Amino acid sequence: MRIGFDAKRVFFNRSGLGAYSRDSVELLSRYCPGHEYLLFSPKEGNPVGFAVPEGVRTLYPEGVSRRFSSLWRSYAMSGSLRRAGLDIYHGLSNELPADIRRSGVRSVVTIHDLIFVRYPRLYRPADRWLYTRKYAGSCRNADRIIAISGQTRNDLVEFWGVPSEKIDVVYQGCNPIFYDRADDGERRRVRMKYGLPGHYLLSVGTVEERKNLLLAVRAIAENGLDTELVVCGRRTPYADRVESYAAGHGLADRIHFLTGVETSDLPALYQMADALVYASLFEGFGIPILEGLNSGIPVITTRGGVFVETGGDACLYVDPASTEEMADAIGRALGDTALRAELAERGYRHAARFRQEHIVASLMRVYQSL
Predict the structure, then answer these.
(1) DSSP E strand boundaries for 83-184
(2) Alpha-carbon gap, residue 236 to 310, rounded angstroms
(3) Which end of the chain has fewer CB within 10 Å, C or N?
């Protein structure tokens, strides 16, 4: 098969959508090399430093489309796809070109979540309108839809009335660098580089309201827990609220915010942590949970939604509004040696379900069905 991909986020996005896009291309080229893969990028450049796999070609808009590359990607790619002789085009990040059906190419779109529908107050009205217009239209136009979790599949059916038989659930995985243990030298290097305390809880993800970081900070403050918290992720104005609360409750020197952490440093950062705290209200999948399970540390996350899919029986689950439950879970994760060992064993077993070979096999089954 000749398979094309929307590559904007492959080359220009450092967040979860970019990671998913890059991982998909890398996995397919590695495990299924008998096919031809083409990346359709709206413009030249590669600021994320993605190493394009050998044999994978990158194509750009031609002629007048080069001047209007964003419009080309969203509304006018059919000619380019047709000329490339594609069998399948895969929109990796929630959208397809509006004129995809004119191309005659079979299409797949991956939908990551409908958080902007479920929690509209967290998004600007203009963004909600644009996302709905683009993503719902892509679902209508696609031949198959990939949902990254059963939760996302259920949301597509509930909110947009997408026929369930049109949707395939293909889970995400995490970067394989989390499969291996960092040696003592690597741990010392990372600890010194970021000034990490001797013992700490870890929180990974954008510091925004939906991630609910304040729950963990309040649990520490209100229950006098003797621990420090390292927060790794991009800041938003919500981070100022967290810092203000911490300062007002004598925790300013025990909450450490890190930004710009290199991906290669993350395994050691996880493995040196006493536990991962992931108090998010809602996610499409929740990759940090999987990163924590692969790292062999206890993972504390919230009940409901997708989290039990990602975490299985290997996490401690709390009410996202209960500081008491969060404090109890932190205390158990830090103080119960037998529980820590049990969670590590369960975590390794559950995380194996999301290894790369399983994911790429599921992805290829979707393509072959078309």
Answers:
(1) 88-91, 106-111, 144-147, 167-169
(2) 26
(3) C
Banded model confidence at residue 65, pLDDT cuts 50, 70, 90? low
What SS3 class is residue 346? Answer: helix
- pLDDT reading at 271 higher than 90: yes
Strand order in the sheet with 2-6: 57-59, 36-40, 2-6, 88-91, 106-111, 144-147, 167-169
Q: What share of the chain is helix, strand, coil (3-state, %, to 5)?
A: 50, 15, 35
Burial class (CB in 10 A: 0-12, 13-18, 19+), 147: buried
Q: Rounded to the nearest 5°, which phi and psi values hold at 61?
A: -60, 150
Res 288: pLDDT: 96
The whole-chain average pLDDT of the chain stands at 94
287-301: average pLDDT: 97
- CA dist 155 and 162 (Å) reads 9
Is 107 buried (19+), middle (13-18) or exposed (0-12) by CB count in 10 A? Answer: buried
Beta strand spans in the chain (E) = 2-6, 36-40, 57-59, 88-91, 106-111, 144-147, 167-169, 201-204, 229-232, 255-258, 275-278, 299-302, 316-318
Q: Is 286 left (phi over 0), alpha (psi -120 to 50) or beta?
A: left
CB 256 within 8 A of CB 228: yes
Q: For 327, phi and psi rounded to 5 degrees?
A: -60, -40
Who wins on pLDDT, 324 or 76?
324
What is the C-alpha to C-alpha distance for residues 9 and 7, in angstroms, rounded to an integer?
5
CA distances from 180 to 6, 31, 138, 270, 352 (A): 31, 20, 38, 12, 13
pLDDT(69) > 80: no
Query: DSSP label at 327?
Result: H
Q: 174 with 201: CB under 8 angstroms?
A: no
Among 113, 109, 92, 82, smallest CA distance to 50 is for 92
As a residue count, the chain comes to 370
Looking at the predicted structure, is the pLDDT value of residue 302 above 60? yes
Q: What is the pLDDT of residue 80?
A: 92
